[in-house]
Design goal:
The complex is a heterodimer of chains A (274) and B (272). Chain A is mostly helical and 274 residues long. Chain A has helices at 6-41, 52-61, 63-97, 99-114, 117-128, 132-156, 160-168, 173-210, 216-225, 229-257. The relative contact order of chain B is 0.17. With 272 residues, chain B is of the alpha/beta class. Classes of the chains: A mainly alpha (274), B alpha/beta (272).
């Protein structure tokens, strides 16, 4: 076969990149299309599975409460998530840099993380009353654990030789954490943020469905009690969109700050794809 | 020499046992002296405690028995007049080469205090070092953009940037291919000629030991101690052609024979 010209290769690469950018939208559109066709073809009742067109109609009809409740959920989620980031970083550093803290706290942390958060919400309601704080705290409780574990791992796995180099120079443990441990833990930290932000939504929505008077969780609860299933689905879709948006924010920050961790290959999945 | 200066590094009857009374004995009754500005190579079978020796001299670990004296003072804690380099270059991937080389200056006093006000001076110094090892122009590259040999050169610069009087090298060229390794031998030789630090080079490459050092110390199997030494009769600067001469090869063979004797002796001891 004769070698392909440089332009042809570049054109093929461009086409491939365009396809990759368009692919998520195509997949989403395809999913909704299949859903719509299935609903119509099998004549599925609206109160079991509403078709996307019905959900869209409901979204248009209820746009104002959807938006205000989505905003409430976003607020509680982000506040809880930021608390989890601050607390997770601090505890992660403590656990990763001290064997004593690790041995002492880790079993308790695991036990704590195993408790279903939905069971904690009533307690939070007793303490803080229904509304904003139980949702924030549930988001916080559910999302700090992955951050702690990842930051601790990043710090605890500093190469012993590097530790020796710095220690021999007279570095205090604090120097080692600041100069090596923390920067090294950053890729782990951002990986955990991607997990944490999505589960933070789970936390605040759980809390809103148990005890709240606003938020997407509350809206879905009210809608389902009225058998307004299209509105319940509208709430689910809005939550999904918020999750993707926050995930995208986390990824953008990650790419800006820890590009070194992917060693210049901006997309590792493409490395072999030519 | 009419007035024998006291040795710069003095290790006297040092033993090192890991993990309590029942732990592994890594070194037993090791004694050695290294003069100021001398280049000494320590060779021995793998697992003989060479790396342990390094950590004792730099004060990272206290010996179980015996004393380590560096520059007239007993080593009681980390020794910032020492620079270290290992087989693994251990550069920080989020810092460029320049910032990697500058790392010790952010830690060691008095440089740490002066770094902010005299940044230009220190950067100039780092640049000079990088030039000396052949890395001029690579200051703003990142470690993962460099080959293994270049990373090791940068690691050498990091070990030298705070003007250590003692350079501890733990198999620094062990992971490199033969050609790169020979290049770096000459880099190290030039660095030593230019700055005359006291060097303790731990290696298992006999050719490397003879080519680079003034004196080769041979360690026994674990628990390690110095069982023999061999002075290398060559002046400086040496060239790689030297390694192909019959005399050089004879020295290497002699060292090899002594090490295998040591291992046989140990095996006999163990059997008895």
């Amino acid at each position: 076969m004769p070698p392909r010209s440089a332009e042809a290769l570049a054109e093929a690469a461009r086409r491939r990149r365009r396809l990759e950018n368009a692919l998520p939208w195509l997949v989403i559109a395809g999913m909704f299309l299949v859903w719509e066709i299935a609903c119509r073809a099998f004549d599925i009742p609206v109160f079991i599975l509403p078709a996307p067109s019905v959900i869209a109609e409901s979204m248009v009809k209820w746009w104002s409460p959807l938006l205000s409740n989505a905003w409430a959920t976003l607020k509680t989620t982000v506040v809880g998530f930021l608390m989890a980031v601050a607390f997770g970083l601090l505890l992660g550093v403590a656990i990763g840099s001290s064997v004593l803290v690790y041995r002492g706290l880790y079993p308790l942390l695991i036990a704590f993380n195993s408790v279903p958060k939905v069971a904690v919400v009533p307690i939070l309601v007793i303490w803080f009353g229904a509304g904003f704080w139980p949702a924030v705290l549930t988001a916080f409780l559910i999302s700090f654990f992955p951050i702690v574990v990842n930051v601790a791992t990043g710090i605890a796995t500093v190469e012993p030789e590097l530790r020796d180099v710095l220690r021999a120079l007279g570095a205090k443990p604090r120097d080692i954490i600041m100069k090596v441990g923390l920067p090294r833990a950053m890729p782990y930290f951002f990986a955990s943020l991607k997990v944490a932000i999505t589960v933070a939504f789970v936390g605040s929505i759980i809390s809103e469905t148990v005890a709240a008077n606003e938020g997407i969780g509350h809206l879905m609860l009210v809608a389902s009690s009225r058998f307004d299933v299209p509105l319940v689905f509208a709430g689910l879709i809005i939550t999904g969109i918020m999750g993707v948006l926050m995930y995208w924010v986390a990824v953008t920050i990650e790419e800006r700050t820890t590009g070194w961790a992917t060693r210049g290959q901006n997309d590792p999945r493409l490395a072999t794809g030519g | 020499m009419n007035t024998p200066a006291p040795p710069f590094v003095q290790i006297d009857g040092v033993s090192m046992r890991y993990g309590g009374v029942e732990g592994t004995l890594a070194l037993k009754g090791t004694s050695l002296d290294v003069a100021d500005g001398e280049f000494v190579a320590v060779v021995g079978p793998s697992g003989c405690g060479k790396s342990t020796l390094m950590r004792l001299v730099t004060g990272l670990w206290p010996p179980t028995e015996g004393t380590v004296i560096v520059d007239g003072q007993e080593v009681a804690g980390p020794l910032s007049i020492a620079g270290m380099a290992f087989q693994n270059p251990t550069l920080l991937p989020w810092r460029n080469i320049m910032d990697n080389v500058m790392l010790p200056l952010e830690v060691v006093q008095p440089h740490r205090r002066q770094l902010r006000s005299q940044r230009g001076h220190y950067e100039h110094k780092a640049r000079e070092l990088l030039k000396l090892v052949g890395l001029a122009g690579f200051e703003s590259r990142f470690p993962w953009q460099l080959s293994g040999g270049m990373q090791q050169r940068a690691s050498l610069c990091r070990a030298l940037v705070h003007d250590p009087r003692l350079l501890m090298l733990d198999e620094p060229f062990g992971a490199l291919d033969v050609f790169t390794r020979e290049d770096l031998w000459d880099v190290l030789q030039d660095v030593w000629i230019a700055r005359k630090p006291t060097v303790i080079l731990v290696t298992h490459d006999l050719k490397e030991a003879v080519y680079l050092s003034d004196r080769v110390l041979i360690m026994s199997n674990r628990p390690g101690r110095i069982i023999a030494e061999r002075t290398v009769p060559y002046g400086r600067r040496r060239s790689l052609d030297l390694t192909y001469t019959a005399e050089f090869q004879a020295i290497v063979h002699e060292l090899r024979a002594r090490i295998s004797d040591a291992r046989k002796g140990e095996a006999a001891d163990a059997a008895a």
